[in-house]
Amino acid sequence: MLPKIHRNSLFTMSRIVTLLSDFGTQDAYVGAMKGTIAQINPAQAVIDVTHDIEPQNIAQARFVLMNAFPYFPRGTVHVAVVDPGVGSARRGVAIVIGDSSTESIGVLVGPDNGLFGGILEQYPILAAVELNQFCYWRIPQPSHTFHGRDIFAPVGAHLANGVELDQVGTAIAPESLKRLALPPLVYTENEITGSIQAIDRFGNLVTTIPAAVVANQQWSVELEEYSLPGLTTYSDRSPGTPVALIGSHGWVEIAIVNGNAQQFFNLQIGDTIKIQTDEF
Amino acid sequence: MLPKIHRNSLFTMSRIVTLLSDFGTQDAYVGAMKGTIAQINPAQAVIDVTHDIEPQNIAQARFVLMNAFPYFPRGTVHVAVVDPGVGSARRGVAIVIGDSSTESIGVLVGPDNGLFGGILEQYPILAAVELNQFCYWRIPQPSHTFHGRDIFAPVGAHLANGVELDQVGTAIAPESLKRLALPPLVYTENEITGSIQAIDRFGNLVTTIPAAVVANQQWSVELEEYSLPGLTTYSDRSPGTPVALIGSHGWVEIAIVNGNAQQFFNLQIGDTIKIQTDEF
Amino acid sequence: MLPKIHRNSLFTMSRIVTLLSDFGTQDAYVGAMKGTIAQINPAQAVIDVTHDIEPQNIAQARFVLMNAFPYFPRGTVHVAVVDPGVGSARRGVAIVIGDSSTESIGVLVGPDNGLFGGILEQYPILAAVELNQFCYWRIPQPSHTFHGRDIFAPVGAHLANGVELDQVGTAIAPESLKRLALPPLVYTENEITGSIQAIDRFGNLVTTIPAAVVANQQWSVELEEYSLPGLTTYSDRSPGTPVALIGSHGWVEIAIVNGNAQQFFNLQIGDTIKIQTDEF
Of C86, C98, C117, which is closest to residue C165 (Cα–Cα)? Predict the structure, then answer.
């Protein structure tokens, strides 16, 4: 039996729904999702995380959602739809994420394809269900190609409205949820080898190396002919200088002061990055 | 005399204003429209359908608005501004759209240039007015180039606020409203010839052939050397395969599983698409 | 001592927060700012002016914010973050903008790097503070690279929530605020020389010459082999014709009827524009 989720601890009075997708903003897809939510609750607050995920790039969606997640109020319902498997047997899921006190800090709704993996690795899962209660869908026979509109957005709106998790689906084992793990870091005597996991609008290269790994020590990124000592801010150096620092998301980043590191180094997602440290 | 529009049947308590335009998101245009609405009602809920219509592409605007329209709550006011004729003699209009019960399901506000044509073809028109009551405009002498900010957004906000249709303008004949008709389908013995009416962010090719035309029969799209049987989901086939199916908007679509059909077939809006069917 | 700002005159009940940045919409940055605001007030109304300012283009941000500002309700809090100096010694500021009656018409929050300059030149400054009260920040030790999330968005949300200006920082002299002045116009006998200060999505060329300078007289833009008489609307001429007119932002603009003037004339921001007038 699914553990009882106390409504008062799960949701505040002003529960927010966020949307993340690869639908872009030029078509009717995002409007259709928001209209569907408004049909359930015209006063529902909806915040876009982004709709500009590259088409079907689950790894990018995983990274962006993971980085936005901690800044939202408790009880926020995050509907995320990057869904190359729509219409296949992949499950739709809703997941309640907790913290060390096992109190809910957020709810995830979307396809079970790994896009929630970054959050699932960092927080306890309080409960998860497979979505199969079509009375909370837009229509009992959803489109085969647009579950964002027909299943995920309406289920998210109903959850934000106070519907309980066990009403929208059947409990599933948290460990069965799909994750997209980052490639593991490789440690040698005084070197850590990671890779680039994301590149932002400014061309900053976000590595897979978290701040905790280089905390309380000297460190530098070794890249081509450069040895970039770990700094605390872009502005310690003059414009055009390559620098390494802990970015705002909490990962080692490589940047060019007032410039674009992707263009400067011509690197891509997945490329190897090495860090030297004083000691481990 | 204009038929009395009962406020309770027209509007729910939480009337929404949607915005659609070709203003893009880099300039101050959208912010100015939203600020103008907020000056009328700071609590007004506003949902963007899109602002990324190609500059002055009325046909694209017509397609996107038509596809988003049915998902919004009754009483929603849709302000749409793709307006190459701004400052000329083209009329500004507000239109109440009904359904078979002749109850309002939505209100359209914008230039009378055909961008509402897709909706006008599908639903009864309950009433229409030409906008000429400048007390509901931002200023009595509007800009010659930005009626979105000075006329359409404020009129939309006032209508959402409960102002009656006949207060904002003078009744006009519904049949005088401009429409942009799709080119008619051509039927031969077991073939239907339509064309591509839209291409979405994923490169899916949306045809002018509605689902109803191929319902309850076998059908296939005949395209170059391919014969693409009508499927029910992308995921019946392996990635990279061209498929034909009923898309989420209710039209025959051509797609590549996890790929981009526009790039694959190198087709454009207006190109011919032929469907073979078993029987009519 | 800072002048007392009366809450009732400064703020309406439904104070809005606007956001302007160069963060783009593909990353988690905007979502993180909005989540941070929602953690302070889940019911806070937030309107995006734009997030598509070119990375670190303070002049473009100055232009867009100046043009959106006058359309928002009194008491609106504008949070603007184009911040190449983040992490350096540049100040964070909050500024109360007034009008001739010295009543507040808006509040600006962001880095003191000139991006508010266009507004500061047009309106009286009622009060300004340097942000240094970290109890109104997201965390006492903000990120070195993302003050939008950690300082400016939360301070803006608190001000919208009714916190007084003198609680969030220490008073500074309005004349010490950084401005980015436009290059001055050059007047000769019957010619005014300005330049292009902005180019919008439609390719319209917005000059530095305000409408007031050409009011109540004949004028024309002299550009290459063209002499473009000042018109009142795009639609006086046939498609493809270059025209000069007063744009919706109140500046002399050069446009192509239903076309793109930037591509037609191949001009850039900063390029010289000359106007001939009958008399001064």
Answer: C98
